[in-house]
């Protein structure tokens, strides 16, 4: 029995109002929608001299997507024409109505008249133009139809027109029954939904080859640059299934199905579609035509390479390694150096999961430059910079390396890699604790114009780099107490990257972290505890760390200590130095709260050594502040003040508002403790200076709504005002302290026994 594809190819038939006439190799079909486009072109030729320049310009811009895009309903077509030229839309409707209400010979005469467009000394349409080629294809396809097929086409045209008439009648009845406000709201919704209404985009029948190519290229471009404007995963898969039902040999449709499956993390469907893509390339001979005898082997080795990348993406490293070995073997047999360089890059990624080695990566960069592969070389440099940043290399050397890669980007106009490089710089400055520099790089990327041509309304910055930079920007604003601005940035991220998009996990994690910090600052530990599960689902290490912080705040010291010890061992194995330092600081705070101050000192010294070894300046400054607090508790406030003056500058320059407040509060504590040995006059000056520092700390804490720290500052200020004899100020601070103390739970430990 013949296959479905063969029956469609050798037996012309009518399906869903579409006449197939590809018996003689014609790649276009005559459909009612294309008949309406032919009427539009005919009327446009007649009304040419009468149309204004602006109307002609709008119509010319409209024609290309209409000729290349899938079929649409007549009402949709009329609406598009009316937006450009209402008079022409009326003429098209009247012409179609006369043809439908007339006889079959009217349609025959219409096609005969189309040929006249190419005649004369100055023809209306040039044969080689886009419109001319479309007209010639349609005339050729119509001439190949048998009489029965012509009749079926005419019947389909009548149904196409009558369906639009019925819809207009239903709309008029709805207008009579609907009040004006509801009608305006419905029209606004329809206009907003306009370009992406799935029932309008959905093709009821098979697409021609050009329509299929346009649809596939458009959706692939949207998936890469602006996923929000692409069809939803379910709708796109439905369209692809319909396309493959009539055109099973279109390999690109299988590849788009593979990309669509990656959006929803469907490993089975993505693997199935990827294998089908390369199978179709081999069966149709598409690769052999463009690459000679080498095409078959080229498909096999790149199929294995893509399969390795797919398994690596889903964390199947053993399967990825096997597929990569197969790709390397075939590439070596074929002496394909380009494929081997891609294999080398993926080999580094796989081995990075086991041990850190720069040898493969450096070799890959050198070879890529040798074979003229700037894109691959630049990606290698980016990976090398990232690895060396985690290894603690100096920031100036990393920025020099990124500058060299930027020269490659601008030389070869690699717009996507320019964005990646800028996002990488933002992340590196954040890692080193230079928030001002990170903010500058983030703003640079956001204000940068893309080098790529914008097509079909694509927002070129809707990429992973854009998402990363916006997430850092939201966190920076939240750290400075600008929570409203951070919420606006996150709202923008949610619009740009919906929850079902592939980069949505980035903003989800940052959103949860910002909410967690706000809840902890506000003393709402039960709310913070409820957010831990969401953070853990997105990042297990961050989730465990936040759980320990909540337990510590709830005075569950033994549980928090066990959790932090397990996390410390895991982070040391995975060489997550930044988290190791944060865990050590939390363990030191547990020792303070348990009055084990001497035990905390070795832990803090270990954290300082790590932070300085890996050039994490901000974490080093924060650790020194913790050391100063330990010295204060141990009774040497003068030494604490000395090291505070060395460490406080980076905190005030690049730190979060909460850290600035804690630093100023600590300075005030040290000043008060040191003043005990001063002369009376000098002691009063020291206490007044401490009051000023407390005022500054209070301003910082109020900005982030940190009520617990505010309560501690007010208590301390009240004691200082009492010592200075300022009764009115003391009573004011005491009243504010009482209000906060009644609102918040008691510490359970002395107020001075905590740094943050």
TrEMBL record:
InterPro entries (UniProt xref): Apc5, Apc5_dom, Apc5_N, TPR-like_helical_dom_sf
Main location: cytoplasm
Pfam families, A to Z: ANAPC5, Apc5_N
Anaphase-promoting complex subunit domain location: 254-353, 566-615
Anaphase-promoting complex subunit 5 N-terminal domain span: 30-167
Gene Ontology terms: cellular component: anaphase-promoting complex; spindle
Keywords of the record: Cell cycle, Cell division, Cytoplasm, Cytoskeleton, Mitosis, Nucleus, Phosphoprotein, Repeat, TPR repeat, Ubl conjugation pathway
Protein name: Anaphase-promoting complex subunit 5
Lineage: Eukaryota, Metazoa, Chordata, Craniata, Vertebrata
């Amino acid at each position: 029995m013949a296959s479905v594809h063969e029956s469609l190819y050798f037996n012309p038939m009518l399906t869903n109002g579409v006449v197939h006439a590809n018996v003689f190799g014609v790649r276009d079909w005559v459909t009612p929608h294309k008949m309406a486009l032919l009427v539009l072109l005919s009327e446009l030729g007649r009304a040419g001299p009468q149309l204004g320049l602006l109307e002609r310009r709008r119509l010319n811009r409209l024609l290309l997507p209409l000729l290349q895009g899938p079929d649409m309903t007549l009402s949709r077509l009329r609406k598009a024409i009316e937006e450009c030229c209402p008079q022409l839309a009326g003429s098209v409707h009247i012409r179609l109505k006369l043809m439908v209400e007339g006889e079959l010979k009217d349609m025959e005469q219409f096609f005969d008249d189309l040929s006249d467009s190419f005649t004369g000394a100055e023809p209306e349409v040039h044969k080689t133009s886009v419109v001319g080629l479309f007209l010639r294809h349609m005339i050729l396809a119509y001439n190949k139809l048998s009489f029965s097929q012509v009749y079926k086409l005419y019947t389909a045209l009548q149904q196409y027109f009558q369906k639009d008439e019925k819809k207009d009648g239903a709309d008029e009845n709805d207008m009579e029954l609907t009040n004006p406000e509801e009608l305006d709201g419905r029209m606004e919704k329809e206009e907003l939904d306009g370009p992406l209404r799935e029932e309008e985009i959905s093709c009821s029948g098979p697409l021609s080859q050009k329509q299929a190519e346009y649809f596939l290229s458009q959706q692939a471009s949207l998936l890469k640059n602006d996923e929000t404007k692409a069809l939803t995963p379910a709708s796109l898969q439905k369209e692809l299934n319909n396309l493959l039902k009539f055109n099973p040999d279109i390999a690109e449709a299988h590849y788009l199905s593979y990309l669509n499956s990656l959006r929803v993390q469907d490993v089975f469907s993505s693997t199935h579609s990827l294998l089908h893509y390369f199978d179709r390339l081999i069966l149709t001979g598409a690769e052999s035509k463009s690459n000679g005898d080498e095409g078959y082997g080229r498909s096999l080795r790149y199929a294995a390479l893509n399969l390795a990348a797919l398994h690596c993406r889903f964390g199947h490293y053993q399967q990825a390694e096997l597929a990569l070995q197969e790709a390397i073997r075939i590439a070596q047999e074929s002496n394909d150096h380009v494929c081997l360089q891609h294999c080398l890059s993926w080999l580094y990624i796989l081995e990075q999961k086991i041990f850190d080695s720069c040898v493969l990566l450096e070799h890959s960069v050198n070879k890529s430059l040798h074979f003229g592969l700037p894109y691959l070389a630049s990606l290698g440099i980016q990976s090398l910079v990232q690895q060396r940043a985690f290894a603690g290399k100096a920031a100036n050397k990393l920025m020099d390396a990124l500058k060299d890669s930027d020269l490659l980007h601008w030389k070869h106009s690699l717009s996507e890699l320019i964005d990646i490089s800028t996002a990488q710089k933002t992340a590196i400055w954040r890692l080193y604790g230079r928030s001002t520099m990170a903010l500058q790089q983030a703003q640079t990327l956001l204000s940068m114009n893309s080098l790529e041509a914008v097509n079909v309304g694509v927002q070129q910055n809707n990429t992973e780099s854009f998402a990363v930079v916006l997430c850092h920007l939201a966190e920076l604003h939240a750290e400075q107490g600008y929570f409203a601005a951070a919420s606006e940035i996150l709202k923008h991220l949610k619009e740009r990257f919906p929850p079902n998009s592939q980069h949505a996990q980035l903003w989800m994690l940052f959103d949860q972290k910002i909410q967690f910090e706000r809840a902890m600052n506000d003393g709402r530990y039960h709310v913070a505890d409820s957010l831990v599960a969401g953070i853990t689902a997105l990042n297990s290490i961050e989730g465990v760390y936040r759980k320990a912080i909540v337990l510590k705040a709830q005075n569950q010291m033994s549980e928090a200590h066990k959790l932090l010890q397990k996390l410390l061992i895991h982070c040391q194995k995975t060489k997550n130095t930044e988290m190791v330092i944060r865990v050590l600081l939390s363990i030191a705070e547990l020792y303070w709260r348990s009055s084990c101050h001497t035990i905390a000192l070795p832990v803090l010294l270990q954290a300082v050594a790590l932070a300085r070894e890996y050039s994490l300046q901000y974490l080093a400054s924060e650790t020194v502040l913790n050391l100063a607090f330990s010295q204060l508790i141990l009774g040497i406030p003068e030494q604490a003040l000395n090291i505070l003056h060395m460490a406080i500058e980076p905190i005030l320059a690049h730190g979060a508002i909460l850290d600035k407040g804690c630093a100023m509060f600590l300075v005030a504590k040290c000043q008060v403790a040191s003043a005990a040995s001063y002369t009376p006059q000098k002691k009063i000056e020291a206490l007044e200076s401490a009051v000023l520092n407390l005022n500054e700390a209070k301003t910082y804490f109020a900005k982030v709504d940190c009520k617990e720290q505010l309560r501690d500052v007010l208590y301390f200020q009240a004691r200082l005002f009492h010592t200075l004899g300022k009764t009115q100020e003391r009573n004011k601070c005491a009243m504010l302290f009482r209000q906060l103390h009644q609102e918040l739970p008691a510490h359970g430990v002395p107020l001075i026994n905590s740094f943050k």
